[in-house]
Amino acid sequence: MNISDLMDIGELEALCKSCTALTGVPTTLLDREGAVLIAAGWQDICIRFHRAHPVTAARCLKSDTVRSGHVATGERYTAYRCKNGLVTISVPITIQGEHIGDFLIGQFLFAPPDRDFFIRQAEEFGFDADAYLEALGRVPVISEDRVLKMMDFFSHLTHLFNEMALTTKRVRDANAALQTANEQLQAEVEERKWTEEKIRETEHRSAVLLGAIPDLMFVLSRDGEYRDFQVPDIRLLALPPGEIIGKNIRDAGFTPDQVDTILQAIGRAIETEELQCLEYELAVPSGIGQFEARLLALSDREVLCIVRDITERKQAEAIRMRAFQQIERNIEQIAVLADHVRQPLQVIQGMADLTDDAKATKTISNQVERINDYIRELDQGWIESRKIRTFLQRHEML
């Protein structure tokens, strides 16, 4: 935490200058690292001499040890005489127990200066004695009683700084928390929008896929109540679309036996969690339809029923069966016809053999043989037809 982040340094500097003008005592604001943020009314003896020489400047920096000590003990302020001979009072600035800086009052003296001390100091560090002593003469001398009265004011002023900094920190913390909350809310809103968009995409995709399925789909309860449905052609519905939900299969035109069969299939699907299949006939707006139903458990209370219109398939099977039966009759008629033709041929051949006309006998025999060839071809076709029929039957094509 940095004091410059919590206080308006420009306004504090104006305040420090006003305090210096009123009291005649320099005021200073340091950050917690000891860096000078504000220096109002500093004495020339410090600026031109003490802080300009490396040894005396190092003595000035030792005040950090004093400041750290009084912060640790919790004192309201600490007055100390630096190694260079001047008095400074330090008032800590803390926020929720954290030391963030110091407000300093000084440089000044509690009593007239010991000129010999400062003369020796000028000689030790090579200061211009006259200029040094002249600067010393401008250092204010303030009694301890007056200092105590001043410190009451400065302590309250520092307390005000602390409160201002704390208020600023709380406001900034609250703003930061609000910003974080807003960012989280925005992220949640964006995520929700993304989720809703994905849901819409999924619903659209599901609707497209369902719309492309030619089968009817129903969600049925264990007792046969319609819970939901999806159909490609309402002409295949036994009930008006707006009346299906909430109705029971008993209301859809099924016979009592069909209702019992469907309810048993629903029960088996739920109990065994295995696919159940059944076929049924039902009157719908498009006519009497043949349907195949497949039932699969969705939960312990509902099943998904996928219904396929197999009317055309059943009609095709019926046509195919009639055609097969006609083929069977035709094959049998060919066999009978061949036998019927052979008998007259045998008679004709016998009569030809009894004639005295050898040429006529030969002609008749040739024609009889030709007819027999035709009959043998019919026999061979009958055999091939039987083989084909057996093949088709074996592969369930007839």
Descriptive labels:
398 residues, alpha+beta, Beta-Lactamase, 3 domains, 5-stranded antiparallel beta sheet, 10 strands, 18% strand
Write a structural description.
The protein starts with a helix and ends with a helix. Helices cover 58% and strands 18% of the residues. The chain is rod-shaped, with a radius of gyration of 58 Å. It is an alpha+beta fold and 398 residues long. The protein has a 5-stranded antiparallel sheet with strand order 2-1-5-4-3, sandwiched between helices. Strands 7-6-10-9-8 form a 5-stranded antiparallel sheet, with helices on both faces. It has 3 domains: 3-158, Beta-Lactamase, CATH 3.30.450; 216-309, Beta-Lactamase; 315-394. The mean pLDDT is 83. Strand 8 and strand 9 form a beta hairpin. It has 11 helices and 10 strands.
SSE layout and pairings?
Elements: H1 3-6, H2 9-23, E1 27-31, E2 36-40, H3 44-50, H4 54-61, H5 63-73, E3 78-81, E4 87-95, E5 98-108, H6 115-125, H7 129-137, H8 144-212, E6 216-221, E7 226-230, H9 256-272, E8 276-284, E9 287-297, E10 302-309, H10 311-354, H11 358-394
Helix pairs in contact: 6-7, 10-11
